[in-house]
Amino acid sequence: MRLSPSSWFKRSGEPGAVVAPFVGLLLLVTLFASVGNLLFTEGSVFHVSTYTITLLGKYLCYAMLALAVDVVWGYCGILSLGHAAFFALGGYGMGMYLMRQIGDRGVYGNPILPDFMVFLNWEQLPWYWFGFDHFGFALLMALLVPGLLAFVFGWLAFRSRVTGVYLSIMTQALTYALMLAFFRNEMGFGGNNGLTDFKDILGFDLQSDTTRVALFAITAFCLSLTLLASHAIMTSRFGKVIIALRDTESRSRFLGYRTERYKVWLFVYSAVVAALAGALYVPQIGIINPGEFAPLNSIEVVIWVAIGGRGTLVGAVLGALLVNYAKTRLTAIFPDAWLFALGALFVLVTLFLPKGLIGMAGQWRARRQSGQHQNQSVEGQS
Amino acid sequence: MIPITTLSRALRNCLLILCLGLSFVSADDERFQALALELTTVKLAQTQPVLEKIAETEHPVLLQLFQTMVEGDLYYHDETLELLSVERIDGEYVIKNLLSGEVLPIDRDITTKIRVNNRLRVWLRGAIAQIQLTADDASARLAAVRSLLERYDDDSIELLLSLRADEPNTKVRSAMDTVLAMNTAENSADTGARVASIERLSDSLEPDVRNLLVELSYETDAPVVAAEAQRALERIEGRVNFFGHVDTLFFGLSLGSVLLLASIGLAITFGVMGVINMAHGEMIMLGAYTTYVVQLLMPNHIDASLWVAIPAAFLVSGAFGVLIERGVIQFLHGRPLETLLATFGISLILQQLVRTIFSPLNRQVDTPSWMSGQFEINPVLFVTLNRFYIFVFALLVFAALVLVLSKTNLGLHVRAVSQNRQMAKAMGIRTARVDALTFGLGSGIAGIAGVALSQLTNVGPNLGQSYIIDSFMVVVFGGVGNLFGTLVAAFTLGIANKVFEPVTGAVLASILVLVFIILFIQKRPKGLFPQKGRAAE
């Protein structure tokens, strides 16, 4: 049996059906974890280590990135293999702020120039680094630049109706080109090593437990917010058009919708969410380097979404959390086995789980309901 | 070049031994032996007459004797008085019998150096030049003349003048003229002759000529000469620039042939079948590893290994291709994005498989001797043989593929299935079998590409990844489903890359090319040569 793609979205399209309880659960867990870390000492059953907090924060950033991919792939059919580019650009924006915050505490003690620039004998700060010592400006840029890139790229691509696989390969080429560019020392972003050795953010020490818990909580909060916002968008008129043009773009166009505009704005929204995830990721991980642009990273995100169930928002978040947890565990136990497992996941999920875990659960529930329905009708007859 | 010279030296030694063996009792040889003995006892001041007599014997080992001596490597055994060459190789002294070339396991303490002074060295160089310039082999003569470009003196010029008239080979004669003209331009007292020589030199591309002209252009004593030298330099610069562009073109064609090889298999699987195979790069990698394994199995026949590796790589990668098609891709028919993800998973598995079996480190694949070296078109333009062969090979593979698709039954079926699957099925074509074979063919060709790439780059688990994006770019740029588009696109992108490279650096050049393609696809989403008619969507 082959379901038409639209049938998997109807249920998740019910207003607030899954998203609201999920957000509640997420915030509750965040609260417990934060309290567990800050109030309970080591040895207590309720204690949550700072390592775990940082790990959870990282997972939540990935979940937000997965959400961004789900918004364009699941609802609009745009398979982006380059979302890591937006994520990394957001990360670099935040990294630049954190780099400037180091001040004269770097190895070379230069109050203006970051260490790598001193090392490369640069005389002064490049123009695009100005203003990044202000947090607000840095955050704005971290979101604006990826958004702008997504706008230009999307506008060019969607206007000329580049779709499907072509678009996927173009996005992959985009992130690949950016990776090559950021590897260059001349770019002024630290080249191969990227930006690291951060000290503090807004005056708070990045190594302290409180800052880490705060960052984690902020990430959870942002994730909840983007989940709710995405859900609101998808249930709005705008979202309905998006789903319509995913299913039959030409028909939507004939009905008078300027499909490329809808796609561009959705793509920009998605890129900004990815960039926000990147900006939250960097202070928690403590490093950003060009490796984040690697095409493999973008494709990994796609598989998180596929496992969770695309076009379900919550599924993307769950998929990201599950796969990353598995990755952490597996790479610790069998370092070599992870790529085998990831590869197998790609193959098995596409072959046997085309609608992801959420889709499978939905199918299972639908079957049970129809079974009950049959039973009732049998009883009614007798 | 080094392997060739060592090879020829080894050959020459063999010949020497043969000659010595055959003519052991000849009178000349006896005389040579006696003189060689005299060399070990004679005083430094009396050495030259002895050497002159030795030169008269025209013994085959003369050249080697003089060369060893001029380097200060000539010794003799304290007891047997035989002549030895003592060379320091990698910090160790290697002592050889000069006549037989045989390495002797003796200590340097029981040898004595035959001393040379500057006067002797000058004489020896002249003698060496004479021997080389009168060699029977034209290429040896040419090499000797060209070595004079760098340093000539009155004696060598005199020698050249005497030999010039009898020189049968035009190339050698022209090189001789260049040396003579250099000498005249530099040393002649007659300004008119100097100007004429400089004009003659402006045809030459030799770096030594250029150096001389630069020197002359600063000559203040003779402004006419300086001006003429300047003019000649400009002319030479112009030609060097031109050949520089030709060189860029060659490199572009070489890169283009690599791109063509890498993407040609994809042109089948993606272009003709419409299957997005992200594991295509890994098919290339498997081909490269097959080459490595073949060389491991036949370590003594490296020259022949590639001829075994090509069919082996085709079979290995082709078999994997058929397996992937039957195992995964056939179930995802008509779902391109899912196919993309599944094949990406396969590529991860294959990479990790290779990493587990062969280690994550790069493996060394040897280049057969017939592929190493280069040929010189002129002093500023070289073509390395491996790049040349790979260029030819890429075109051959391309031609073979076009023939298979247009002339064979399989090709007919492939085109039928790609144009209208249902109709082809109705006509009795077993589409499932055709799918598997086509995919196997595309993968097998990727494997062959791997054999070629193993000669150019490192063979490691990530080999394929570095080509996958480029390959897709080439196919998309050329127009999906159009083999000739792939050919044109590969060479266009290769040349474009190499044209940008000197201006922007290699990395920025590839970024620019990527950005260019991204923009190009916006303008013409179907590539350079879009499909027309019924085959188009």
Automatic annotation (TrEMBL), chain A:
It comes from the Bacteria. One of its GO terms (cellular component) is plasma membrane. One of its GO terms (molecular function) is branched-chain amino acid transmembrane transporter activity. It is a multi-pass membrane protein. It is found in: Cell inner membrane. Keywords: Cell membrane, Membrane, Transmembrane, Transmembrane helix. The keyword Cell inner membrane does not apply. The chain crosses the membrane at residues 20-40, 52-75, 81-99, 111-129, 135-158, 165-183, 213-233, 262-282, 302-325, 337-358. NCBIfam families: urea_trans_UrtC. This is ABC-type branched-chain amino acid transport system, permease component. It comes from Reinekea blandensis MED297. The lineage of its organism: Bacteria, Pseudomonadati, Pseudomonadota, Gammaproteobacteria, Oceanospirillales.
UniProtKB/TrEMBL annotation, chain B:
GO terms for biological process: amino acid transport. It is a multi-pass membrane protein. InterPro entries: ABC_transp_permease, ABC_UrtB_bac, BCAA_transport_permease. GO terms for cellular component: plasma membrane. It holds the Pfam family BPD_transp_2. GO terms for molecular function: transmembrane transporter activity. It comes from the Bacteria. CDD domains: TM_PBP1_LivH_like. Keywords: Amino-acid transport, Cell membrane, Membrane, Signal, Transmembrane, Transmembrane helix, Transport. It is found in: Cell inner membrane. Its main location: membrane. The chain crosses the membrane at residues 249-276, 304-324, 336-354, 388-410, 431-452, 472-496, 503-521. Residues 1-27 form the signal peptide. Belongs to the binding-protein-dependent transport system permease family. LivHM subfamily. This is Branched-chain amino acid ABC-type transport system, permease component. It comes from Reinekea blandensis MED297.
